[in-house]
Amino acid sequence: MSGGKAGREGQDWRWRLAAAGDAFAMRVLATALAEDGRHDEAVAWWEKAIAAGDETALHQLAHHMGARTLEGQLRRQAESGDVAAMGNLAKLLVRNSGGQRLAEAVHWLTLAVRAGVTPERELVAALDSAGRSAEAEDRLRHMASAGDLRALRDLVRRLREGDDGERLDEAVVWLTRGVAAGEPWEWDLVAVLDRAGRADEAEARLRRLADRHDVKAVATLVRRAPENMRAQVSRRELDGPVRARAVDHVRRVAAALARLDLREEAVRWWTAADALDDRVCSSPAARLAARPAPVSGAPDSGVEWQLQEMAATDDVTATRVLAGYLARTGQTAEAVRMWTRADAADGRGLWGDVLEQRALGGASDTVTSHGVQGGAPGVVGDASPADAESEETPAGTVEEPDTAPATATHRLSAQMPSHAGLYEPVSLVVRVPFGAAHDDGVSAPLAGFRPAPDGSPLTLIVRAPAGLDPQGPLEHTLLVPPSDAPAPVRFAFLTREPGLHRIRVSAWAGGTFLTEIGLEVTVERDGPYAVEPPSTADMGEIRAHPGEVTLLVDRVGDQYTFRLISDRCIYGAVLAQALTAAPEAAAERAYAMLQRLAAGRGEYSGAHARRWMKETGVGLWTEMVPDAVKEQFWQLRDHITAFSVASEHDVLPWELLYPVAPGRDEGFLVQQFPVLRNSLGQTRSSVLPIGEPHYVVSARAPVNGDSEIESIRRILGTGTVVDTLDGVLTVIDAGTTGPLHFTCHNTFDPGGGSSILLADGPFVPALLNSAVARRALQDGRPLVFVNACRAAGAVPQYTRMLGWAQQFMGAGAGAFVGTLWAVRSDSAQRFAEAFYASLSAGEPLGTAVHRARSHAGHDETDPTWLAYTVYGDPAAIVSTSVPAPAAAVFSPARAVPAPVRCEDT
Predict the structure, then answer these.
(1) How far apart are CA 271 and CA 268, in angstroms?
(2) In what order do the strands lie in the sheet with 499-509?
(3) Beta bridge partners of 643
(4) What is the dihedral sign for C-alpha 831, 833, 834, 838?
(5) Minimal CA–CA distance to 151: which of 124, 169, 127, 184?
(6) CB-based contacts of 746, cutoff 8 Å, min separation 6
(7) Which of 176, 495, 722, 769 is the residue whose CA sits 20 to 30 A from 256?
(8) Of all residues in the chain, what percent carry a pLDDT higher than 70?
(9) Other Cβ atoms closer than 10 A to 501
(10) What angle separates helix 583-598 from helix 606-624, to the nearest 10 degrees?
């Protein structure tokens, strides 16, 4: 055979498959042969395909030969006794049906069926087409009697049409036969029995299904019961599964009852299932829900909030406990929703979201990022834990709009109970709300927050006292979308000790500290459970400064914990060795020596003085910093651009740190890169206004006080000189918008703290308490520079450390510069001049401090350059133009030590 469209015999796939008896290949080959003009071969292959049962081949042959020609050929063959031709002729006649031709088709099909070459179903179809439905049904009865289940289903379908009692009874007979044969038609049989008025038999069938643990049957039996008997029937049906402890079965029945809108009975079954589930009964949530309510039968808002927050973060057990609590307090509809959600969450763990949602009765479901949503009307659908945020909760949060105005911002919000009982669960819920949807009247906007198009990572770190036992990690990183709120984060605790416990939540972008929120919870044995509105904080711009590393230092009892945080890695907290003595005493000894060195009265001079400073810094590094943190530091060292220390309740001079390791000696930490401190609990200010300065001069000014003010005026501007206590307090209370520079003597007593004597009285940190409470400086965010001895010193005050840095930053200052020990007046002036000159030239705060240290550190016996400690954002810059730094005239370094800025105490 040659080629053409039919290909070559023996080589083309159609020839090979057709020769093997494939009817489809025969038909395709016949079509190709016809197109090649090989008529006889094409007809032969079409006939073979028809003989193999391919009706399409019959239609193609009719088209090729002409319907009338083919019909005549088939009729001659059929009349001669060819039973295959009888069947094919009947099919052709049915295709061209009408009047007598259908009758003739039935005739030939009857003969073909008797000969066994044509399926009887084709005869039934022809009888239906000819309007002879009674004969078609008789044929179906004959087929069903012979065991044809398909015919039986077709027959029952016909018998169920209409309300004829006899035909419905016949349908029952045939369905009963099918069920006996093992077909799953019990529910069809129940439906037909009901339509035939045989309700008792229908219920008997349902009873048999229920005994085989058919969930739908149990729910249907309860629904069929008279309303006044429904509870009794429900308890009767529940008794067996409860005795068998069939928890899953009981829950499935509860879900089925809920879909039938039998909520009260669904609650009964779900409650029974939870009572059988040890996970639910022994959970902390169950112990919490068992607390007696303030008013019998009324909901406890504190308990309900706690359970809601536990449930909102995929705690399935807590969701079930919450559902039971809601049911007991009369909130049936919400209870059913919670139970349904818990069942769906359990099912997702086994079968996947979509399968479980459909198993729970959902219809027309849509898969979303929050799970499966949707469902037919009247069906209780799944509400995933994430979807709980879209409905109003006891905390008052509601669904946020899809879009928000361009001015909408993010905030940091944290909420937890203010009172709780002993050995009970406590949730800390942290949110980053967007826009005005969560505005509760005390929220602060996140001005300037510009997350990346694909979101910005935000790390939350929680610090809690020993009396609150964490039930999971105290760190979580979430992705904040540009115009939406991320899902809330829950940190779970168990109360272990009575008393007042303070928790702090800090937010970080890489190694950049953003803000911190403090919360308190009072724990009492059998105490009340109360929830206050959420605490909020302004986070500013959520953006990591590349290369910024923060050392988070915390002190718990007699031990320090350290944690390094960077944009490369956020390490876990490391516990240092227990202290052998109070570190304050060692710090005071160091400060005393540094003060003597600054005054030129130290025991060391020249290189020996510098060596003493170095060894003191090395000792601080080796004794206080854990080995794990040292290793982490060296891993990050070459990538650090700025280093921040975040601590509180701490008096150690971290600016003295001198990291060393075998083969590594890069100098003091402050020599390697900008080193600043973070004032935890305050929002960092990225902009520092330095226009309209105020210069504060003490009653007994430093010997070079006038010179210092004059040189700084050439950099910042003339400004205003203030020398009275009334004047200083007036400037602060008014919320100054410019720098506040102190050129003065500061008296510091480790027992009483700092004091600056002004013309009409001493200025002490405690006089800023109301400014802190009012956040008087928050709008202006001024830079405060107290250029005096021990200006950054702090002393314990009730529950916190009290000093100039803590007070000014607490009042809302954008940055604070002070000293840890006595400083020489001339070195202090050079530091201030270089600092302001760099800052006004556009250098970031960290760089300005770094340059100022270098400028003031020429004398190796003078520790002044190490004394300065700076609170603020290393990347902060000035917000307004000032005279060019070239106008500044720096004071020359002195060969002889100048007086220090300390007063004897």
Answers:
(1) 5
(2) 475-480, 456-463, 499-509, 512-524, 417-421, 530-531
(3) 549, 675
(4) positive
(5) 124
(6) 754, 755, 756, 786, 788, 789, 790, 791, 804, 901, 902, 903
(7) 176
(8) 79
(9) 21
(10) 160
Q: What are phi and psi of 516, to 5 degrees?
A: -145, 145
- CA dist 173 to 196, 197, 207, Å? 12, 15, 19
- Of the candidates 575, 552, 561, 569, the one whose C-alpha atom is nearest the C-alpha of residue 635 is 569
Other Cβ atoms less than 10 A from the Cβ of 641: the count is 17
Which residue has tokens 């289903």?
153
Q: What share of the chain is helix, strand, coil (3-state, %, to 5)?
A: 45, 20, 35
Q: Contact, 425 vs 310, CB < 8 A?
A: yes
pLDDT above 70 for 376: no
Q: What phi, psi does 294 have (nearest 5°)?
A: -55, -40
**How far is it, in rounded angstroms, from Cα 336 to Cα 332?**
6
Residue 801 is given by DSSP the state E
Both tokens of 715, joined, read 């950099």
Helices (H), 22-146: 23-35, 39-51, 55-65, 67-79, 83-95, 100-115, 120-129, 133-145
pTM, whole model, 2 decimals?
0.62
Name beta bridge partners: 505. 462, 517
Contacts of 604 by beta carbon, 8 Å cutoff, 6+ apart: 597, 611, 612, 861
* Mean confidence (pLDDT) of the chain: 80
CA 320 to chain centre: 21
Average pLDDT over residues 169-189: 90
Q: CB–CB of 7/32 below 8 Å?
A: yes
Query: What are the pLDDT digits (tens) for 590-614?
Result: 888 888 888 888 788 888 989 999 9
Instruction: Copy the structure tokens of residue 317.
Output: 């057990």
pLDDT band (50, 70, 90) for residue 274: very high
460-481 pLDDT, tens digit per residue, is 999 999 899 999 999 999 999 9
Cα–Cα distance, 451 to 182 (Å, whole number): 63
For residue 405, give both structure tokens: 């105005």
- The three-state secondary structure class of 372 is strand
176, two tokens: 């009963």
The answer on pLDDT for 765 being more than 90 is: yes
Question: Which is more confident, 879 or 832?
Answer: 832
| Residue at token pair 């050129």 | 743
Instruction: Give the list of residues 6+ apart from residue 776 with CB closer than 8 angstroms, or none.
Output: 732, 733, 734, 735, 770, 811, 812
Spell 330-351 as b/e; 16+ CB within 10 A means b: ebeebbbbbbbbbbbbbbbeee
Look up residue 16 and give its two tokens: 């090979």
d(CA 787, CA 781): 19
The answer to whether the CB of 9 falls within 8 A of the CB of 36 is: no
CB 339 within 8 A of CB 360: no
Name residues whose C-beta falls within 8 Å of residue 278's C-beta, 6 or more positions apart in sequence.
Answer: none
